[in-house]
Amino acid sequence: MPPYPHAPHLRLLALPLTRSSRQQPLFTLLAIPPAASPPSSRQTPAAPPPPRLSLANASRLTKQSLDKAAQLWDSFGAAPRGGWKRRTWEIGERLMDRVEYEEWALKGLDPELGPQLSRAGKAEGKEVLQDPEEKLPILYPPSLLAPQPLLSTLKDHLAHRGPHHKKLMTRCLVISPFLIPFALVPVIPNFPLFYVLWRAWSHYRALKSSQYLLALLSSHRLLPTPSATLDKVYTSERDRDDRGEEGDGRVLLSEEGVEELVKAFGLDQARETEVRRAVGQARVRLGGSGKEEEKEKEKED
Known about the structure:
The protein is an alpha/beta fold. The protein contains 10 helices and 5 strands; from the N terminus they run E-E-H-H-H-H-H-E-H-H-E-H-E-H-H. The longest helix has about 30 residues, at about 270-300. It starts with 10 loop residues before the first strand and ends with a helix.
């Protein structure tokens, strides 16, 4: 039984996707929420911690609405083939697969599950941790990533993604009122409006997560932690690679590697899908960059 599926704290996984000799591997983050360990018969159950004052508690109605929307969407996927519900679900799934994996990674992180920022600090326009000693671990494979380059690359990435998601969120909110007239179409729901509002909400979550991680970085509360289990996954990947290449143009996770990762860390279906989506997009981007390099060489010749 792997030790990770029952870890009691929020953790981040730094998952290398592609390798380049010019820089450290391109990686993505995967947030694994805390899960209570099975209680031992010799231990007295600990008293539950006092409830936190959080936006999540204040927005319970929003969460319930999102859960109902997710259930409705799943029912579309279970509808008979050929009907408009199933066709809508298939188109929607393809659209979701086109959303950048960087956005999925950020919005998959719930700041309420990690070290908390004080409300006093937020009121003053500063992000201050309630418990300065509480840290958020980032597990990484030491054979592919190093702590300082990992944090430096992550900081640059977050500094770019924050304004990016804010701009696109604003754009979606500006467009949404113009889609309200689609509700006049009988029978068919207003899918264009639903999609634009979903994209706005998605960008909002990614924006808040990027701001949260930047606050942890600035207060030195992100803790790079080498993981032998994660390193073993990537070592097995190298052993399966018959080419034995160490240069550019390599995707570092295969189907077998994803399955091994899922078993090692007890990932649920949503996070498995997130990893597969990231690997697929990284492979497409790698192929596109390779074609561009070939065209440049042809022009030079």
